[in-house]
Amino acid sequence: MANSSTLYTLALLAANYILQVYGTNCPVVECWFVQEKPGHGFPAAMSQDKSLMYVRISPDSTRAESQQKPPVGIDPSRIYHVTDPSGSLCSPSLHSPEGSVKKPQCEINPFLPHPSLVNWAAPLTRSGLSPVYLEADWFSASLKGLDEQLVLSSVIRAAKTTNELNVILAVYSTSALVRSRLGVPVVLNCWFWKESSSPLSELGFAVEWRYQFRGEGRLVVAYDAKNDRLAETSEKGAELDISGLHQTGNASLLLEDAQVRHTGTYICTIYLPYLLAQVTIDLEIVEPPSLSISPSPLPISFPGQTITVQCEASGFSPLSLEFRWEFVGADGAVQPLVNGGMSGHRQAVDGTFSQSSWLTLDLGKLDLGRGGEVTCVAVHPGGTRRTSTTLSIIGVSGPTIEDSMAMVAVALGLYGLIKLCSWMFTRAGSIDSDSEEKKEK
Ligand SMILES: *[C@@H]1O[C@H](CO)[C@@H](O)[C@H](O)[C@H]1NC(C)=O
């Protein structure tokens, strides 16, 4: 009995140890430490040093690095021990497998806490917080995962002149590139976590979504959580889940009806008093074209004739389209046809594009037999679409076996008919003459 309970305790201890070493510690994050070189004028020269972050989720867990050799070629002052209770720095996509060439991107910069001036974040610092907590070294870290989908930004605090860092604010998205069809709801994913034991945490937070495209920008939504107030914006159909924001840190943006005009870059910013962190998300609206082909069906054609077919693609976005033409013969064989030309594009009110292609078929030069299907193929990032029209060619020289057999059958039939008629005619003639003979008697 005593033995088994000792074993049980040992097993528990071992499990706990494994959890501490492997479960609550994350592999090392390699980073570039980028800062302005001191004493340089404008433009500021930047220095870039290799850096390492040993990350653990809880300050109680043992340090993973104690089992490892100190790395070579890295300045010891750029080796950090980061406690990240949010666990966001532990995401597998931030750690390349051993020996892998592909590396996640990571950059650390010095960060200067400052009151925010934007309307929805200004109330956070209005009360005038004792700045003692802010007297520390602050850093911001920006990371991009291996799959290019995870983006993460953290604000990290170090007690003066130590390399023990604590994540205070983390903002991340697990889909940095979103592709959506037209006219459907689309969610731009953004989450945040704040250190609840930080004195900044009780003072509230603010959320802001901005939109940027080709140098233009606008506010999409902004929310002041301290006063539970949404900012006035001109944007319609863009929503935050306010209760989710408070309960789980879900700052995702819901666009109710994806339109071409939504294409662009979205910046999700979370403000804490004096701090901010942001991630950017790209949204692409990808809608494949609808095709129409004309004339359909094609007028019955003769060898030697030249016919023109037009194919119109409409309602697509982005403007990236390639047309191909194919001919499918009666025997099912596919033959590419030379593209006749392509029109310029037009843009509809909803932002989608239309464009046409035409094909000229010279039946004097092309041998298309007795016809088949002429197919227009439109290749678009949203998918390939195709549509067909029927081509019938008559009077083709060199009849097929079926033709010959049909002709023989017709000829035989005709012959039979003529024979029958002439027989009936002679029969009728002889009956008439018989009766005339009788009358004469
Ligand atoms: C997060 O918020 C978005 C936008 O309101 C919502 O569509 C989504 O379902 C939420 N996600 C979770 C896991 O609650």
TrEMBL record:
A Gene Ontology BP annotation from the UniProt entry: antigen processing and presentation of endogenous peptide antigen via MHC class I
Keywords in alphabetical order: Immunoglobulin domain, Signal
Domain annotation Ig-like: ranges: 289-392
Source organism, top-level taxon: Eukaryota
A Pfam family that the UniProt record links to this protein: V-set
One Gene Ontology CC term in the entry: membrane
InterPro entries in the record: Ig-like_dom (IPR007110), Ig-like_dom_sf (IPR036179), Ig-like_fold (IPR013783), Ig_sub (IPR003599), Ig_V-set (IPR013106), Immune_Resp_Modulators (IPR050380), Tapasin (IPR008056)
Leader sequence segment: 1-23
Protein name: Ig-like domain-containing protein
